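Let us begin with a simple case.
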Amino acid sequence: MLRTKKFLLVMTTLMGTAVGMAQTDPAAQSTPPTTTNLRVPLLDKELIFSDKHFVTMLAQGNAYELAAAQIALAKSSRSEVQTYAQIMVSDHTQMGAMLQATVQQIDPAFPIPNAPSPKHQRMLEELSAATTNFDVVYKAQMLMSHAETLNLLQSFQMNGYGHPLLKALAQTAEPVVTMHLQMAQLLP
């Protein structure tokens, strides 16, 4: 987490310098947008549509995985599932804080969802209702959810748009989500 905070601090400093240079350079102000200077508007403190979609999807998925882990801690009796769920609570709490801090730097007025999507809510209801097959249902949901999140992170990084701070967050989160997916594959 300390490494991530340092990274975000360095990125913020660099971006602030770049924005300041663009605002004080008369040539930069009078030059029409071209393919070489199109990135400057992305340094503004606003989220474009793809950013908002990414933030919403990531926040809702994070809220779901955190809630599912809390259900697993309450319902599962297997030590492997308990350990995995504890890791999910810790990592997804941290991810939520990182997402919140990143969005606050870009657009403090943007409302970050703090609840799962309707689809995720139905999955939580299914998980809560599971009895003897709880661990099987939890594993299946974790595999699906982490695969979807990994796809979201990779797609966002590859698209040509998006705020640099959010792209950096996606890049930071990708190995963690990959690890979560691999760990879920090993659950009983």
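The second case is a distinct protein. As before, the sequence precedes its structure tokens.
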Amino acid sequence: MKGIFDTKRDSGYDDEIAFRYHFPKPYRRIAEALVGERIIYREPQRNGGRRAYVATAKVVVIEDDPIRLGHAYAVMAEYQEFDEPVPFVRGGRYWETSLLSVPDPSRVGAFLQGKLIRTIPESDFAAIVRAGLSETLKPDNAIRLELDPKHVDGSTQELLDLPLEEQERRIEQILMNRKIREASFRRKVCDAYDSRCAITGLRIVNGGGKSEAQAAHIWSVAEGGPDIVQNGIALSATVHWLFDRHLISLTDDYRILVCTTRCRGSCGRYSKSRWTGFICQGMPDSGRIRRMWHGTGSGSARSDGMRVSLNVATQPTEKAKSPDRGRRTRTRSNRRFHLRRQELLTHSSASSLS
């Protein structure tokens, strides 16, 4: 059994769907039945939603909301956005089997009222997720995404070579395959930056469509960072190496921080270079930068041993802001939630190894 979680912008719920899903307690029983299972997030058309399935994630645990009585949180993990939103209706037919029994298609909206959280068969889940990963799994994109035989192991290649129907049957293995997840993340981030390094401005693409720029996580996966474009930045190989080792960093307003105590000589010259950045869309949100870089702020803020250098780029346009724009600023309670989530995930991992 799998599930659907409906989510919409400016809903009034305290959602941050990569990490938590906020819902009223009448849905608790069905939410608890989905603990340990994967769900699909769907955006209804109301409130500017895309009327599409947009991502998948795994339900870790259900916890009471200590502040808002009558509500609870589903703690989420393994969040993965789809390559493209999967339309709610495909060729005049609904993906969800239960909706096919509604005799009047105009009454589907009424049928879904009171079904903010609902279950779906494994087959529905597999078909929707496979459609959502179609660009990543497309053979034409193998070289570009390093999913060609030169870059993957035998088990990954076996999954990639399967026909569509068999890939649907083995969709859990595909979702758990780190190489495929990395390829999906790389595609979204490199597309968002037009395959151009955000720091140097270089754009180099080979004949197979593979860019020299790499997709770097601002908030690392090891520390709980999600594979979403707002948590990614396109960097050339050398800059990525510096970034991962905290020899260069970013402020909230997208200025470059250069380490002056650990990085001398050639690295010191970077701060004198007229670097330019190119942001196509979806610059990472400042909350993720702030968490990753231990409280480094914008403007005049400094981190020990680092100094502000040059602008990477201007703030993103309204069109280019993250999909979860407009949601409330993260508060102290939100930060406590992330710490609690990390404890739960660590405990879950330890239990599975014992």
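The radius of gyration is 21 Å. The chain has two domains: 2-132+329-353, 192-320.
Keep these points in mind for the review questions at the end of the chapter.
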